[in-house]
Amino acid sequence: MTDLFPLIARQRRAVADLLGSLDESQWATPSLCDGWTVKEVAAHLVMPFQVKLPGLLVRMVKARGDYNRVADEFARATASATAPEALVALLRANAEHRFTPPGNGPEAPRTDIVTHGLDIGVPLGKAPELPDGTVNEVLSFLMTTKATRGFLPKDRVPGLHFVSTDTGWAGGGAGPEVAGPAGSLVLAITGRRAGLDGLTGDGVAELSRRIGA
């Protein structure tokens, strides 16, 4: 079985390189994560290295089990208190960290860094390079039930057939087709409305409805 962590480390370093190239105004740019700036997404990316499991459990209790609230509070507080160069250094120093969330394997952190790299890079016109194999495997993971643990709701992909026009990947059901660049598919499947702009096919209207666009 392929060890995914070297691939995850490569993507973390690519995102760190991207972040390290930004000026002050670019750090403040709205990302594709609703309500978060580029800097807040960067802060979210270092959360697994800064908050250990016991601390996360305490935060979850205070948030009454709402992980999204925990993540949002951490991202905003950390972005406010941490210099951009420190966030870059944290991400780079922990590139080889082997964190996996409870109930999921390394497919989850790989999907997280790929998706958030797009969240940061697309609005800036600087999306990090994604090897075809990596983005295809992320798309395959998003078709699984495991991906519903944090990346998309259970009703997002059933009954739709997805085709990547630039990497040769295809997956999903036998229903209406949603086709477009792999990066656009990742964004749309994970609920980013901006991803819909690059998609075509009979299933786009239904996917749009499902993500509330």
Describe this structure as you would to a colleague.
The chain is built from eleven helices and three strands, in the order H-H-H-H-H-H-H-H-H-E-E-E-H-H. A three-stranded mixed beta sheet has the order 2-1-3. The model has no long low-confidence stretch (mean pLDDT 94). It has two domains: 5-124, no CATH class; 132-211, Nonspecific Lipid-transfer Protein, Chain A (2-Layer Sandwich). With 213 residues, the protein is mainly α. Helix 3 (38-45) packs parallel to helix 7 and helix 9 (132-142) runs parallel beside helix 10 (182-189). A hairpin with a 5-residue loop joins strand 1 (161-164) and strand 2 (170-172).
Structural class: mainly alpha
Low-confidence stretches: none
What's the arrangement of strands in the largest beta sheet? 2-1-3
Largest sheet: 3 strands, mixed
In a few lines, what is going on in this structure?
Helices cover 53% and strands 5% of the residues. The chain contains eleven helices and three strands.
How are the elements arranged and paired?
Blueprint: H1 5-20, H2 24-27, H3 38-45, H4 47-50, H5 53-62, H6 67-81, H7 84-93, H8 107-124, H9 132-142, E1 161-164, E2 170-172, E3 177-180, H10 182-189, H11 204-211
Parallel strand pairs: 1-3
Antiparallel strand pairs: 1-2
Helix pairs in contact: 1-7, 1-8, 3-6, 3-7, 3-8, 8-9, 9-10
Offer a few descriptive terms.
single chain, 213 residues, mainly alpha, Nonspecific Lipid-transfer Protein, Chain A, 5% strand
